[in-house]
Design brief:
The complex is a heterodimer of chains A (366) and B (258).
Chain A (H helix, E strand, L loop, with lengths): L6 H23 L1 H26 L8 H14 E2 L4 E2 L2 H20 L7 H21 L20 E2 L2 E2 L4 E3 L2 E3 L1 H24 L2 H11 L1 H6 L4 H27 L9 H14 L4 H30 L6 H19 L8 H7 L3 H15 L1
Antiparallel strand pairs in A: 1-2, 3-4, 5-6
Helix pairs in contact in A: 1-2, 2-6, 2-9, 2-10, 2-11, 3-4, 3-5, 3-9, 4-9, 7-9, 10-11, 11-12
Chain B lengths: L6 E12 L2 E12 L3 E5 L6 H8 L7 E6 L2 E2 L5 H7 L1 E3 L12 H8 L8 H6 L2 H21 L14 H13 L5 E5 L7 H16 L3 E5 L3 H7 L2 E6 L2 E6 L1 H6 L1 H8 L4
Parallel strand pairs in B: 3-8, 3-9, 6-7, 7-8
Antiparallel strand pairs in B: 1-2, 1-4, 4-5, 9-10
The chains are: A mainly alpha (366), B alpha/beta (258).
């Protein structure tokens, strides 16, 4: 993704829109939706992390939520009354990321020889192991407080500036959800930047080569073991950061936030949005957070208006619709809603797309 | 043409079993620097197995394997690529959904160094390296005769171009030995002729070539020396015209009381 001169004003307008977005949401839809936007940003970070593993390196990981859990529990244990520790955010977040990274390598190392279905099964197991550990580490020594989870986690704050209090700046009230929005937006942009830079690098090409043909990649001199571990580690790091932010934002973590369903949701964001394409993954993340919420709020009243009573429980209807949407997208847009240019070309070998691409490739050659 | 003098690759007593099947039994051969060495034999003779041993895909069961004066008895493919052995595959194994240019750029991986930090910061060394990688990849595409837009997906290239792209990708690793597994399989006479010219110019650039081929005309016209495998054993070796008259070879190909 490269920006030329014409797109600069566009980019500025887009940035401005992102900055005022929480206020627009607040005034149009209400406070609760700003909170949903915050969650959307956390999920986008997760989806982008998983995109490195699944989209770039082609390693199907069904236990990705485990790294989110590691990040969240790191933050929760070191910044809550649980152990009476209250470490600052600049120490806890990087530590959580580092631990998640470590667990990424820990998961990656024994699965290096596995591909496809087999890798999926092992990673699925790994995700469950982490969750069950968190669930049971309350005896004999109470570490995680078991199924009750850890509450009263320190809110996110930086050098005396607390994100959980309302601050007045330039005569505008910034409430907690607004402030978290900007914090998460910053982190999301950082994750996007890192993803973009990695995608168009020597490492990114090596990942894609492994995705396309591991044997050939190895024969061309790529140390597939290290490069795959790097993909696991990078993906897990993003998950860990997102997890730490989640714990600080929510103020409470419990094992049930890290169920298999969450891993599946994040994978859906990547696959539905467009595997390997950052914009697509972001779109997938936004849609899969917002649509179910919209449905949750809309389905009940709609049924009341149509039938005069609740016919189907909105919660189960939500999953039904979700499944239906998945099937339809996979039927009609198998490469995702916003596929990468390469995948788009796979599906429609169009001259215009080729022409657009040509310019960027030749730029790189100069 | 460089004078074949020194030995580049040497196999002695190489055995490879798959269960009870001896795919290679006590094969010894050496390839000299700068020559084009042909490996022929009937189907199932063990040519590709030998190839996979040389390129690290299989570990040999017995025997020794040395390349460029180093021993590589059990070695990973990427280390052999680093040492200077590059290969193509009998069934084309390109990175199908990457562009022609990217395929060749991946070949440069083993000779370049920038890592995560360079990718994130785009420091001067990384940018220079990326430019050099792309530049060399463009050169190699032209060198092997692919004149399509370099952003064409590998899988959208014609069959002959895909074979050439595999060669370009292999050449990008700066090999000392280029190992080609049936490079002209399925090509017509014109394409074969132009590939022959390409292989000759690769050799003239100082790269030793190891060639598995069924096309006898190509082998006879191109190779300096030829080895014949049959049932995992080397039954003949020497100049193409001598090998051609060898009774054991004739028996292996046409049947006989050998």
């Amino acid at each position: 993704m490269k920006f030329n001169h014409q797109s600069k004003p566009m980019l500025a307008a887009f940035a401005a829109a992102l900055l005022v977005l929480p206020f627009i949401i607040d005034s149009l839809l209400g406070h609760g939706w700003v909170r949903i936007a915050d969650f959307a940003l956390l999920y986008i970070m997760l989806a982008l992390g998983l995109n490195i593993v699944v989209g770039y390196a082609g390693l199907l990981d069904l236990g990705y939520i485990a790294f989110f859990a590691v990040g969240a529990y790191t933050y929760a244990l070191l910044g809550s009354p649980q152990f009476g520790l209250h470490w600052p955010i600049w120490a806890v977040l990087p530590l959580g990321a580092l631990l998640a990274c470590f667990f990424g390598v820990l998961l990656g190392a024994p699965t290096l020889r596995l591909r496809g279905d087999y890798l999926a099964i092992v990673t699925l197991g790994f995700g469950e192991i982490i969750r069950i550990f968190m669930n049971n580490l309350n005896a004999p020594v109470n570490i995680t407080n078991g199924p009750q989870g850890i509450s009263s986690i320190d809110p996110l704050s930086m050098g005396g500036f607390s994100f959980s209090k309302t601050h007045e700046l330039f005569g505008v009230d910034f409430t907690a959800v607004h402030l978290h929005y900007y914090l998460f937006l910053g982190f999301t942009l950082l994750v996007i930047f890192v993803s973009l830079r990695l995608q168009h690098s020597r490492i990114g090409r090596a990942w894609m080569a492994i995705r396309e043909d591991e044997v050939a990649a190895n024969a061309m001199g790529i140390n597939t073991r290290n490069i795959k571990l790097l993909a696991f580690a990078m993906g897990a790091t993003f998950g860990g950061i997102s997890g730490g932010l989640f714990a600080g934002f929510q103020g409470f973590v419990s094992p049930e936030s890290f169920s298999l369903m969450e891993s599946v949701m994040i994978l859906c964001m990547v696959v539905l949005g467009g595997m390997g394409n950052i914009a697509g993954v972001v779109l997938g993340g936004v849609l899969l957070v917002i649509l179910p919420e919209a449905f949750r709020h809309g389905a009940g009243p709609l049924q009341q208006a149509l039938f005069g009573k609740i016919v189907v429980d909105p919660e189960s209807l939500r999953m039904l619709m979700f499944g239906l949407a998945l099937i339809l997208v996979m039927l009609w847009r198998p490469a995702g809603l916003w596929p990468s240019t390469q995948r788009r070309r796979e599906l429609m070998p169009d001259e215009t797309v080729a022409q657009q691409e040509q310019d960027t490739v030749y730029d790189a050659a100069k | 043409m460089t004078q074949p003098s020194e030995t580049l690759l040497e196999l002695s007593g190489v055995c490879k079993h798959f269960g009870g099947l001896a795919a290679l039994s006590a094969v010894s051969l050496h390839i000299k620097r700068g020559e084009i060495y042909g490996l022929i034999g009937p189907n199932g003779a063990g040519k590709t197995t030998l190839f996979n041993v040389i390129t690290g895909l299989y570990q040999l069961d017995e025997g020794t394997f040395s390349f460029d004066a180093n021993s590589y008895a059990c070695c990973k493919p990427h280390l052999l690529a680093q040492a200077g052995i590059a290969r193509t595959f009998q069934n084309i194994r390109l990175f199908a959904n990457m562009t022609a240019l990217e395929n060749v750029m991946v070949g440069r991986h083993v000779r370049t160094h920038s890592g995560i930090w360079g990718a994130l910061t785009h420091n001067r060394a990384t940018c220079a390296e990326e430019r050099a990688i792309a530049g060399r990849a463009h050169e190699l595409l032209r060198y092997v005769g692919i004149h399509r837009p370099s952003n064409t997906l590998a899988k959208n290239l014609s069959y002959g171009e895909q074979r050439r792209l595999e060669i370009a990708r292999a050449l990008a690793t700066e090999p000392k030995l280029l190992a080609l597994d049936e490079p002209v399989a399925g090509m017509n006479a014109t394409e074969t002729e132009s590939l022959k010219a390409l292989l000759q110019s690769i050799r003239n650039d100082g790269v030793t070539v190891l060639l598995i081929e069924h096309d006898v005309k190509l082998i006879m016209g191109l190779c300096d020396r030829v080895a014949v495998l049959d049932y995992g054993k080397k039954i003949a070796e020497g100049k193409p015209e001598d090998v051609r008259r060898d009774p054991a070879v004739i028996a292996a190909y046409l049947g006989g009381e050998a």
